[in-house]
Amino acid sequence: MVAQKCQKGSQMNIIALIPARYNSTRFPGKPLALLKGKPIIQYVYERAANSGLFNTVCVATDNISILETVKSFGGKAVLTKESHPSGSDRIAEALQYFPQAELVFNVQGDEPLIEKEPLQKLISAFEDRKVQMASLMTVIEDREMIYNPNIVKVVTDTQNYALYFSRSVIPFQRDSQIDLKYYRHIGVYAYSPECLHRFVYLSPSILERTEKLEQLRALENGIPIKMVETSYQGIGIDTPQDLKTIEKLLSVT
Fold it and tell me: What's this model's pTM, rounded to 2 decimal places?
């Protein structure tokens, strides 16, 4: 894998960490669930590794079975505590094994179809030295998704820094004559190591606990999140039904 150029052409050491918790509320054992005969976590790992963007790819898990599965297909994995309240907290523990990292990616363990293009765009965002944390958003094309609480919406300022994330409809469109785009948040993050450590040092915030959205901890504590627009739609797996949907998608592609 080749280190990427960022910040005035310098070579950066970039690591992708994949948080993989076993006891998902809606889908226990999700990382090990088979998608066309292969564990979900293997799809995510291979997509990240094959992108060629990262010096290191590693799974951060709380479960020995996930650890052994990753190692069985030749991947790297480390064991972390079960008690972490979010994926970012989990990868921060794993980061201690990679002190050389200059840019840290949190690649969700339930995004088996993650593509290179949005990951590359996130790296490019750090060409601006002011950016310390960044994430992805995409235009919502299906209007029904706007009202789905499982679809996280984001609104930004004129510089594409996040103002708020919510499971509710944001913004609320009082005047239907306004031509408005709604954006869906895709939960892939990139941080400087210093920003990640600052984030996990903070206690889970009231808005984070209310909406069950870890990124609100950053906003409540004054950590700006640069949002990067992508055409990638972010097909994640939250439930067994989502798994069946992606299986059908892979069968026709």
Answer: 0.91
